[in-house]
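Notebook B, p. 112. Complex prediction, attempt 2.
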Amino acid sequence: MRPDRRLVVAATCVALYVAVPVLCASNLYLMSMIVAALTIGGIALAWALLGNLGGLVSFGHAAFFGVGSYASALLVMKAGWPIAAALPAAGMVAVLSAVLVLPALRLRGAYFALAVLAYAHIFRIVTTEWTSLTNGAKGLSNIPRFPLIAGFDFASKTGAYLIVLTLVLAFALIYARIRSSHYGLALRAMHESEAATRAVGVNSTLLKAMMLFVSAFMTGVMGAFNAHYINFLEPDYAFSGLWTMLPIVAAIFGGYRTITGPIVGAVVVYLADQLVFKEVMPVGHQIILGALLGLMILRAPDGLLPLLTFRRRTGTILRHA
Amino acid sequence: MTELTLQALWSGVLLGSSYALIALGLAVVFGTMHVINLAHGELVVLAAYVAYTCESQLGLNPLLAIPAAVIVVCAAAALTYLCVDRIAKDRELNSLLLTYGIAVMLTNGVLMLFKADIRSTKSTWLTDAVVMGPLFSMRSEIVFFIVALALMALLWWWLTRTWSGRALRAVASNRDAARLMGIEPRRIELASFVVAGLLAAFAGVAIYSFGVVSPSLGTTLTVKAFVITVLAGMGSIPGVLVGALLLGIVETMTTTFGSSALQELAGMVLFLVVLFVMPNGLFGRART
Amino acid sequence: MMRMWIGRAALAMSFAAVCGAALADEFLVGVEVPLSGALARVGTGMHEGISVAADVFNRKSGKHKVKLITIDDESSPAKAVAAVEKLASQGVVAIDGGYGSNNIGPASDAANKAGLVYITSGGVDEGLTQRGFNTFYRINNTAGYSKAMLGLLADMKASNVSIVYLTKEATSALAKDVDKALTAKGVKTTMHPFDASVTDFKPIVNKIKLQDKPDVIAMVGYETDYAGILRAAKVLKPDVKAMVGVWSLATTKMAEDFPDLMDNVYGTALLPFPAEFTTADGKDFADTYKKLYGKEPDYLGQFGYVQSMLLFEAIARAADNGTLKSGGVATELRKTNRDTLIGRVQFDEKGDNPNFSHRMGQHQGKKIAVVWPAESANAKMKFPGVPW
């Protein structure tokens, strides 16, 4: 990275880690909103990664989110694992669930997108019925909170904020690394022509599967975070369609092609929805999100943020995979 | 035991026929344009609420509300097509996102207008029992079963015997070649959406007449329709009917002999089995 | 001399005015209810009762007034927690409301962390009162509902009961309670669980009709489920003597929405319809409800009203004692012991109301009559009787 760019990044990090808690910590409600927005942002990032690098659109990311939530909660509550170990383990369980999704890779793009949605439904039903493991429709309550470390209570709003911020930034870093690695090169080549890539010997299916796993891992970890933050889970909540819808709107709004786009999009869209739209339209305020998504696809497929920062790209959101 | 089985099969067939109506609409659009209309389930729900409005505000029997439902839903379908048509590139995947957005708008729009309550018809004529030997059903189920069969026959006739229907099949198989033959693809595509709207309208009034509707039903229906299309295999209309009946029967049999809690799961498992074992569906042709 | 008297009088009056102003406090009460989402209808009903209570209380109370701040929790546990936190940050002295044990659990947890009392009538789950919170209070519980259903079944002398129930938490708990009690008395029971996604109940009702052949079909679910079961029963016409449900069934709304399905059906009902309120408290409630909402109150409003009145009274007492900021609301609430629209209410150390016992009503023509227990009944039950 060029030196002045590095400075910008460093300054932003300082602002995020220091300024936000200092300014907002007293307003618990606002902090709640920010933490929730960043959770959505993490999923949006994972979703965009799958789309950009894997060329796959998914309408069922809630599946991985829910699996991660329950996995982490159960590992801590029933197997006594510490939360720090449970979070990545939950991500791995989400990856395992993604293995079940592999047969769907054979399907054409649109079919795959909906197949994952069907999986989300399946996981939700299984979670509801497997009462001996998951407590079924009753849900899990009193899920252990984040611990006290060196005198700092990570279960507080500020603590949770720092954790989710770190997770999201870590994932962004991973995304950037993959993109600039030779895998990323292969993936981008794949987008140009899958046939040509195959001819050269790159296994496109394997690459797509890897991206699915990475995306599932990230989403699973966000789910795990949320479980220990909210301290409560039930199947309808963990696998709720909102965990699919909001990240999609966020990623499209913020700029699908960029790494920071989905995150910033999530913060803007979520805060706008909760603080503005909901006040104006207490019932059905998500209609605005639907309209936003539609408009974005038609008018500004690259999201609004690239427009604002004067960066232009060629106008497609997705290429054939 | 046989009585129980027969009733389960019969209920399954009736249920499957309405699933077929819903899935056909999705299949027609997908066959023509390779676009999955994620708002399709919402169109069905919209029709149901039109029937509700006619019944509650005007005192009309839901059957009489069908023309109104057809008009409203076909208009909504046409509007959806117009939006989809404006997608610049990568229509197949971008249309998913666009129709997803439209679906969210429709669900919330219905929620705002009608609130979250569940609605169902009050017409006693429709909910009265029709008994045929050991088989019980509601009059509305029988009526709409016949309607579904009629519509499917009509659809088949249209696709195979009329010029416009065959034009649709031409566009479905090769858009550019069809254009060379003098067929204007965009008009055909609009027609496919409107036909889907027509089928959705009947399906919506059907559901209102023998089931219950609520704003959140849309997503469930879209998923069911999608599952059936996968079961059937791409591009196969008769396959959709078979797939729908299969799903209906599997659901009722599971409820009768297993636990109703597994009913939804049964359909999903069927979907998974087909996906793993026969990715082209029961009737689909292999595609590269 | 006159001047001195006038001066003293003026001083005394201004002193009294200042004292009066200080004593005429307005207390903020946070209301967290679902006004959208799956529980929108029941949340709105409860909210209406709470608003009526605030209106009545402010009119009757001299120096203490309450002001409600309402936040919609969208039927979601996460939003319920956020709502409670927001209310806490706005300086409310207690939280009133909540529907659905899945939402109430986390929300009352947040309230407890903020040191605020949480009172509700929307959560009957056993676990809610076993957390050792001294801030959690509820005026109804599963036991009260099962007592009512069992009482009615005993009066009917049912010897074979099929129980159809939704697999959600509150409904399964009640169904299993009833099942256990009936089996202990030697009554034959068959359990038929169903999932929330089921819309066609004919397979289940057919199983009951052909295999169980019961005297009574007991239904434990919500409005959609009752409608579906009754509709299926109307088609299949099983040979039973009664259809008995629990909450949300013996209501005017069900009679309006599904008039052909309700006749002779039983459900829990606090008061008959048309309601005749005999106490002054009851009349006040009904009149204010009609004035504010233009309709007759239903059971949701009744519960919301009772829980709120008890809360406001406790707040007033705590303010008088000066213990408002030091946990006085909880202490005063624990001392509650009075007759209300739902009977006598007291709170044990876990926050439960041990006196709670619901009543059973039956749709009879256009009216709803209370038919059990005998002390509260205003009509005899029409038994055997079914809607077809």
